Backbone:
């Protein structure tokens, strides 16, 4: 902390970015059947507007920003521009989807005829085979965060060179994040309910809230529970966060080790690709975790190779639910809290995990909070000792508040400390949590989850659509749309090998970690 106080100017060079997913729905609340519009640009090459799993699952992306205010201004502008391009549709304002068509009727995203576009599409075909399309319609918000090199250099971190010290520091951040990510699920989890149709005939522990809505009474985030993006192959992965080299070796094993059920499927059906390979993970991005170590990759470069050769550049936080009360999926206070929380995770002492780098205690705490985090009888485990959520949460907020204060001074604001205080209120009063508020609004309105969210989504999408967008910003965005379409056409024209050859070359580009 003394180091931060002496070098507060470094804090102003922290960078953050957001990727927000959201299903497009029609005016009846059904999944939109329209393709990703050319008015939005190319989903393959546009820097701000793309699709995730489905053609109907839009993803809105910001650049990196040195202030929260600038970040949210861009995110809002991208939302406003995008919603104007589909005036008869809305963005679904929940992480858990509403009523979906039959699984095989959910459209998989397409990215044109280029080999790189087909790689994305076939990867998603593989996800459909492995997890089902319905599960792929769950949406989230990713918060990307990086500390400046100058700050890593100031911290007492051992390493052979600057790149290694930075990677060691980020791995420490990841370990602390893993220890304390249960707090994010309590404070920001906002998916305690789902439509009955979402689970179909699958056995589940949910209760009936109304004729069309299932829920868990104390759940904070069903999205992050076993009802979400899980299967047997992934559940057996025990990644190591003690050091980058061991993590990469385990990831390499996961993307090269065959899985019997996927081998039985094969890679082709009726002459068409159905998955990229038959391994535990097709590619690195299939690994589902609450946080990822990231490095910007060149076209065709594998993430493992980029991390191995150039180290960790930033982290991607993947466990945040869509904030259903915000039209852009996240609030100003949440962003300020995330900065302070992640700075705390980076600077606070981060001892190594036992058991080959996997912490069973932290995983158990996370699972308990997503399933019953508002249960007053719930006790978590900290270093082998039982502790209540309010007690441990307030202890953590006391520490995070110190970093919030430093950020306030660096940015000449009070928003960071105010964000910490807002979270204390949730620890004092469980009814103030987003998950509790959602359930209360469902009860008060007498509406099902699907009907309530449909109305909320139309209202908030219209709020965005009719919000102010400067002529200069709109002009830049239209230029970006045009440029992305030209870029896609150029990529398609430059292909000089078959897709089979491209896939073979892409897989061969994977380097074995040392």
Residues:
């Amino acid at each position: 902390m003394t180091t931060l106080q002496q070098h507060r100017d470094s804090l102003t060079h922290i960078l953050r970015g957001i990727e927000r997913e959201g299903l497009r729905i029609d005016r009846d609340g059904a999944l939109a059947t329209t393709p990703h519009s050319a008015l939005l640009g190319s989903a393959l090459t546009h820097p701000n507007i793309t699709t995730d799993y489905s053609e109907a699952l839009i993803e809105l992306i910001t650049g990196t920003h040195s202030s929260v205010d600038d970040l949210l201004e861009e995110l809002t502008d991208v939302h406003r521009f995008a919603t104007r391009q589909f005036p008869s549709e809305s963005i679904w304002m929940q992480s858990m989807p509403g009523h979906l068509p039959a699984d095989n009727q959910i459209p998989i995203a397409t990215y044109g005829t280029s080999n790189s576009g087909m790689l994305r599409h076939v990867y998603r075909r593989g996800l459909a085979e492995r997890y089902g399309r319905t599960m792929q319609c769950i949406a989230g918000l990713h918060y990307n965060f990086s500390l400046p090199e100058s700050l890593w250099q100031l911290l007492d971190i051992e390493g052979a060179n600057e790149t290694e010290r930075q990677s060691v520091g980020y791995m420490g951040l990841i370990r602390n994040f893993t220890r304390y990510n249960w707090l994010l699920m309590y404070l920001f989890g906002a998916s305690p309910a789902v439509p009955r149709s979402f689970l179909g005939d699958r056995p589940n522990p949910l209760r009936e809230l109304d004729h069309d809505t299932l829920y868990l009474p104390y759940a904070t985030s069903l999205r992050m529970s076993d009802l979400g993006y899980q299967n047997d192959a992934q559940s057996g992965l025990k990644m190591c966060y003690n050091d980058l080299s061991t993590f990469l070796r385990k990831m390499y094993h996961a993307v090269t080790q065959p899985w019997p059920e996927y081998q039985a499927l094969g890679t082709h059906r009726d002459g068409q690709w159905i998955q990229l390979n038959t391994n535990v993970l097709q590619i690195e991005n299939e690994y589902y975790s609450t946080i990822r170590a990231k490095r910007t990759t060149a076209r065709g470069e594998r993430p493992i190779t980029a991390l191995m050769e150039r180290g960790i550049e930033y982290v991607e936080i993947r466990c945040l639910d869509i904030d259903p009360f915000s039209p852009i999926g996240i609030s100003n206070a949440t962003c300020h809290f995330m900065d302070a929380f992640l700075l705390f995770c980076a600077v606070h002492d981060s001892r190594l995990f036992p058991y080959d780098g996997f912490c069973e205690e932290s995983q158990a705490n996370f699972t308990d909070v997503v399933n019953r985090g508002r249960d007053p009888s719930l006790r978590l485990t900290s270093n082998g000792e039982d502790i209540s959520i309010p007690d441990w949460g307030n202890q953590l907020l006391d520490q995070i508040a110190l970093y919030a204060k430093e950020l306030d001074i660096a940015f000449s604001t009070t928003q960071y400390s105010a964000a910490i205080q807002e979270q204390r209120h949730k620890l004092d009063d469980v009814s103030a949590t987003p998950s509790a508020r959602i359930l209360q609004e469902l009860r008060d309105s007498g509406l099902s989850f699907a009907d309530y969210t449909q109305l909320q989504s139309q209202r908030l999408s219209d709020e965005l659509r009719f919000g102010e967008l400067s002529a200069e910003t709109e002009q830049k965005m239209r230029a970006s749309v045009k440029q992305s379409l030209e870029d896609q056409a150029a990529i398609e024209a430059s292909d000089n090998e078959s897709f089979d050859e491209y896939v073979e070359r892409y897989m061969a580009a994977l380097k074995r970690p040392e």
